[in-house]
Structures are given as structure tokens and as C-alpha cells.
Specification:
The complex is a heterodimer of chains A (191) and B (159). Chain A is 72% helix and 0% strand. By secondary structure, chain A is an all-alpha fold. The longest helix of chain A has 25 residues, at 166-190. Chain A is globular, with a radius of gyration of 18 Å. The termini of chain A are far apart. The radius of gyration of chain B is 37 Å and the shape is flat. A two-stranded antiparallel sheet of chain B has the order 1-2. Classes of the chains: A mainly alpha (191), B mainly alpha (159). At the A-B interface, helix 2, helix 3, helix 5, helix 6 and helix 8 of A face helix 2, helix 4 and helix 5 of B.
Chain lengths: 191, 159
């Protein structure tokens, strides 16, 4: 089921890329519409403030627009786009002198008190709470959660996009999952 | 498999990313270890929550502002015929190779046998065929530029 969805979205993206390369700019707009939320979130984690994040997200899409000719289809478009996003973010961080090494043992930041786990919680509120909990996680976990849970990318694809080994994807995702579960239990114990 | 190794595979197991013997060993360990089973439940809870993750939506007007910034740039040029052929070759490499080999083989065999197909251009008394014709009259009708084609009197042709 998940594989079928991934295959369908990869085929849809490949068709849009072909149309764009044949000169159809509308196809690029469709790709932007599909990925703007994910890329914006990615940029928000890297760029900080809302305005900087928008600028960074636009820079990522502009770079994609310019270098699409180099996309060889050896990976899915999604993998290629997030790989490019990562490079643009790293380049920007270096340029601004704000680049820092990400640590595996980074602390779980304070999650806002609004985080709560009630069965009655409205869907939108629940999603907001999960997002806030993820925002409190170290950067290395957040990226993987975005690619896995939102973009439905396989471990292999995530490894390719972030230029890390599959084993690292596995252990980071595992740590993120347990961090959230532990945090959740601690919140429940306090309640 | 020990607990430390099994613990690192909890999430991958839930994501159905474990294969073959690794998956088998993990299941065997789980059946024996209460602590890892407890952690699997915990990982299940965390996974269920994380699957509800949705990114922050891009600000209103994001795509319009992007379109304005991109507006001044030229769309990628339509690929040339050569690029399209290269792309097509890359995409259909195997069938193209098989086709090319078949063509080369056919051409080679034809060259060896010397029997290149010619359409029937016969006129009364004269017909066209290749150099296999041993009729001395051929030379009389040889046309400059038609290397393989000789013309002979059909009534005396040795073929």
C-alpha cells in the first residue's frame, strides 16, 4: 500500500519533470504546490525566523528550477529535491557563518506545555501538538521525521537525500521515536 | 541478537524495513525478551504519534512570490534532437542495443552473401540485380555510381 503510493507519486513527479523540461512552466508550479509545505518546514528548521525561512525555501525552488536539466532520474524527484534543499541550507549556513556540527546527543528541547495527549483532542490540535513536540527535537531527528512521516520516503531514499548511511537513518528514527514516546509518558505521569 | 542490537531495530521493524534473517532474529529475540517487547510497545506509541506529523504550511502567497522571482528567468531550453535521442537511448538502452545488434548482424550477413534486396525495376528485356550476375552483357549496361548494380539483358542472364 505504502509502496504503491510511493511509486505513484514518483511517477507523477517524473511526468511533471518531463513536461517542465519540454518547456511547460505550469508543470513546475505543480511541483511547487506539491512540495512547498515540506520544503518550507525544512527551511524553517534551518533558517529560523519565518521571513528567512520563506526566503530560503524560495531559494531552494529557484535552484531546482535552474538545475532541473541536471536531474537524471537516477533517484526520485523528491529525493533529489530534498538533497538539493539540504545543500542549499548548508551553503547558506556556511555563508552566514552560522553553520555548526549537529550532534547525536543534542538535548530534547523544552516542549511547550500545550503538548497534551487526550483521546478527545481535536485532530487539528493534535497535529499541532505533534508538530510542536517535533520542533523541540534536535535538528538531526526533525529532518528524518519530515522525510519519513510526511514525505513517506524509504530509509534508502532518506539516506540518499541527507547523504548519511541507512544505518544512521535507522538509529536516528529509532531515537526520535523513543524520545517522543518517553516524553509523552513523562507528560502523562505529570498530569 | 542482544537487547542493544534489538532495540535499535524496533522502529525499522514497525516500518517493515527489516528483511530476511535480520527480521527473523529480531522476532526470535522479541519472543524471549520482555524488556524489548515493552520497548516495542513504547516505540509503537511514538510511531503512531509521529505519523500524525504535518509540516507548517507555507505562508499565504508563497507560490506567487516565487513565481515573481522566477519570472525573469528563462525556462529550460527544449532539448535538442541529439539530447532527446541520447535520453531515449538512455531510457531504452537494452531494446536499443538489441535493435542495433540485429541491424548490424543483418547488414553483415547481407554483405557476406552479397544479396542486397533490390526493388524490381525491370523493363522489357533488361532487369536489375547485383554482381552475382555472370552475364558478360552486364558490363555493357553498367551505370557509373551504381557500384552493386549491373544491368543485363534478361534473355541471356545467368541468374
Amino acid at each position: 500500500m505504502e509502496n504503491t503510493e510511493a511509486k505513484e507519486s514518483a511517477e507523477r513527479d517524473a511526468a511533471l519533470v518531463r513536461r517542465f523540461l519540454a518547456g511547460d512552466e505550469e508543470a513546475f508550479s505543480s511541483l511547487v504546490a506539491l512540495y512547498q509545505d515540506g520544503i518550507y518546514q525544512f527551511a524553517l528548521w534551518h533558517g529560523g525566523a519565518t521571513r528567512e525561512a520563506e526566503d530560503l525555501a524560495q531559494e531552494i525552488f529557484i535552484e531546482a528550477f535552474k538545475s532541473m536539466k541536471n536531474f537524471r532520474g537516477e533517484s526520485s524527484f523528491k529525493t533529489w529535491l530534498y538533497g538539493l534543499a539540504r545543500n542549499v541550507c548548508l551553503y547558506r549556513a556556511r555563508k552566514n557563518g552560522s553553520g555548526r556540527m549537529l550532534q547525536e546527543n543534542e538535548e530534547f528541547a523544552e516542549v511547550p506545555d500545550t503538548f497534551n495527549h487526550c483521546a478527545e483532542m481535536e485532530r487539528e490540535e493534535e497535529m499541532q501538538s505533534v508538530r510542536e513536540a517535533v520542533n523541540g527535537m534536535p535538528q538531526i531527528y526533525r529532518e528524518i521525521i519530515l522525510l519519513r512521516e510526511w514525505e513517506n520516503m524509504s530509509y534508502e531514499e532518506i539516506a540518499q537525500a541527507l547523504a548519511i548511511p541507512v544505518g544512521t537513518v535507522r538509529s536516528r528514527l529509532h531515537n526520535a521515536t523513543l524520545l517522543l514516546a518517553k516524553h509523552l509518558r513523562a507528560q502523562e505521569a505529570l498530569a | 541478537m542482544n537487547c542493544s542490537s534489538a532495540e535499535n531495530k524496533l522502529r525499522a521493524y514497525l516500518d517493515n524495513e527489516l528483511r530476511g534473517s535480520e527480521k527473523g532474529e529480531f522476532i526470535v529475540h522479541l519472543a524471549r525478551c520482555k524488556e524489548c517487547t515493552r520497548k516495542l510497545d513504547m516505540a509503537g506509541e511514538g510511531t503512531a504519534l509521529l505519523r500524525k506529523f504535518r509540516p507548517q504550511r507555507a505562508p499565504e502567497g508563497f507560490s506567487k512570490r516565487l513565481a515573481t522571482r522566477i519570472g525573469g528567468m528563462a525556462a529550460p531550453a527544449k532539448p535538442s534532437l541529439f539530447e532527446r535521442l541520447s535520453e531515449s537511448f538512455r531510457e531504452h538502452r537494452t531494446p536499443a542495443l538489441v535493435g542495433a545488434c540485429a541491424l548490424l548482424l543483418a547488414a553483415g550477413l547481407s554483405a557476406i552473401s552479397g544479396r542486397i534486396y533490390q526493388p524490381n525495376t525491370a523493363k522489357p528485356g533488361i532487369h536489375a540485380h547485383n554482381m552475382d550476375c555472370k552475364n558478360p552483357a552486364d558490363t555493357t549496361y553498367n551505370r557509373p555510381g551504381l557500384v552493386d548494380n549491373f544491368y543485363c539483358d534478361a534473355t541471356t542472364c545467368s541468374k
